[in-house]
Design goal:
methyltransferase, about 250 residues, alpha/beta, Rossmann fold, transferase, single chain, Methyltransf_25, 2 domains, SAM-dependent_MTases_sf
Length: about 250
Amino acid sequence: MFSPEGPSLRELAVQALSSVERGYDLLAPKFDHTPFRTPDAVLDAVGSLLRRTGPYDAGLDLCCGTGAGAGVLAQVCRERVIGVDFSAGMLDVARKQAGPTGPPVSWVRADARALPFAPSFDLVVSFGAFGHFLPGELPWLFAQVRSVLRPGGAFAFPLVAPPRPGSPGYWTLLGFDTVMRVRNALWRPPFVMYYRAFRLGDVRRELTEAGFRVELHALPEFGRRPDGSPRVRLVMARLPEPPRSPR
C-alpha cells in the first residue's frame, strides 16, 4: 500500500494516536506517498468533466491537503484558486508544490466548518476528506459550502461506489471503521476517519436540504459494476441561478 518513500509503521502509529490536525501535520511530508492521497486518475477524470461544465472564475479546494485538488482547479478556473485546510503541515507542502502556471493560487489555514470567506467562489471541490466528518456534521458543512458560493455556483466531489457486502473490500472498510471506533472509545483526542459513513443517499438528502440541486455524473474512465451502476461518480451540487432582471 505504501511506497518506500511513505511513512513507517511507527510513524503511522504515532499519527493514528494523535488528533486529526496533529496527525496530518506529522504525515504531511510523506502524504503523497500514501494511499490516502487521491489518485491522479481520479483527479484527471474530474478535471476532464469540469472543463466541460465550466467556465469558472474562482475556485476553492476544501480540505486541500497537499494541493492535488487545487491543481485541478488551476486547470478549470480563470481568475484565482484558494486551498483551505486546518493542517499547517499539509499547507506547507502544498505551497512548496504549487505549479508555476495558471491563475494565482493561495493557501488558507481554516476549519471547513467555519470558512472565513464571502460568497465569492464559482466552484468548490473536495477530494477524499469527508471521512473526517461525522454524519451529524454534514448539514453544517454543506451550509458552509453554500455560504461561500456565488448564486449558480457548484460544489463537486468524486464518490466511489461502496464495495459489495461480503467482498474483500467490504470487510476491509468494515474492519478499519471498527478499529477506529474502538480507538476513539479508548483514546483521546479522537481521530475521526470513517470510510463507511459518507453514503450517497444521505449526501443527496443533506445537499438538497441545504438548497442545492444535485446532479450525478458517471466517470466513464472507471467503468461500471456488474449491475450497471458507475464505479465512480462525480457529485455536482448546484445553487440556483440568480434571477434575471426584466428587460
